[in-house]
Fold:
Amino acid sequence: MADTNFPLRATPSDWRDAFTALPLERAPADAWARLAAALPATAPASKAAPRGRPTWRALAAAASIAAAVPLAWWLTTRDTAVEPRRASQPLVSTMPPATGSTRPVGATREPMHAASPHIDVATARPEIARASDRAASPRPTRRLRASPVAAVAVAPATAAAASVLSPDVSVTTNLSSAEPSRLDALRQESARLEALVAYARDDRMTSATAALMSASLDDRIRLIDAALMQPDLADDARSSLWNQRVGALQELAALEGTQRWMAAHGTSMDAVARVD
Amino acid sequence: MDLMPPETALAMPPARPAPAVRSSFALDVPDSVLSRARGGEHAAFEQIYRWFERPVYTLALRLCGQPDDAADVLQDTMLKVFGGMHSFRGGSPFWGWLRQVAVNEALMRLRKRRQLDDELPMGDHEFEDLTPPPASAADAAALSRALLKLPPSTRTVLWLYHAEGYTHEEIADLMQRTPSFSKSQLARGGRRLRALLETPEEAPRG
Structure:
């Protein structure tokens, strides 16, 4: 634990001051995802999820998502930067419905184009080759709009992940309707992205550059969470904050996934930075 | 040896006038959110979870001392809170009830591992050290490390008393000990903590 993370304060007057001044600790990134998977389902269409830690199926599905993140990150950096959606825009979920349909959700998505030949998702992680084989062919022919998760390319795996990680997912196709459904979708998306980050993150093989970027995104998410804690938050402000949270998690998921992929190929972000 | 069954763990704390509380749990949850969460709405419960995630995890980490244990306590606490939401009818702050569940879960974990048997030896005529902490107590990292070096039972008493504002009688009830035990551990724990902070490299272990 680096002492620089804990700046010195005035000498406390008593032990109570000293203890209450300690910063709150951060729970594991996948804590909510674990809990959500263990909660009893409330929607009639949802299926009950087993309590406890995610199953091997969820791990395999999430690993396939993590393998697809570098592709999505590449697509994202080619396109415009990822921006959190404004509250007035309909939400475009990056996950297909839990029923397993590969049809993208939302009417505003632009068509996808074929995946880059430079990033071979199927071979980057041999242990999830089976899950990604189906997803890798046929090649998508439409363009993915600014999403770090190439959900369509690995639609069957993500559908499995969505159904296991969030057993009561009910992503609507008409997201311009009621505010609560959009907010629910944002929260569910946030939970999925947290799980993805948790599986993709590995502090043992991080570069200095990536660690800095990751910490910056973590700080951003913490600030957003602190803002969400305000009890009198207006609905539009809450929606905006959740949009921002999803956007930050998308960036973090892309970053962590790229880290894992580059480490698997013997490179690092520091090496990339030095090249140019 | 769980002397506090799950039903008691979810029991509402008695309503009483509360002094100024500085607990990290002291958050007012809007009634609208509580109502929706009581109805089983996951989105509302997630909002409650977000607010209390770090206070619960921090409490669990301070008491249990291990991140994995703290994560499990967080999970178990929130599951019990979700399951018991329907029985929460107000009358006392929601945060107090949630905190009680968290404390009970953490203590149950320590009790199962017999870690509450690990304490500083009690002596006669223990006097609480009322002198201010050393300057190094302002160093959060140093204070956190020093706390971890205390026996779990002693650390629990210190944290519940100083950070969460529990009385000696409440601590004794939670830990199935006497108020004298709580006072003794508080006094000896404070002195031990001071020694650890003043000489972190040379303080004797145990």
Observations:
- The radius of gyration of chain A is 19 Å.
- Residues 6 and 23 of chain A are 8 Å apart (CA to CA).
- Chain A touches chain B through 45 residues (CB under 8 Å).
- Confidence is low (pLDDT under 50) at residues 43-51, 79-177 of chain A.
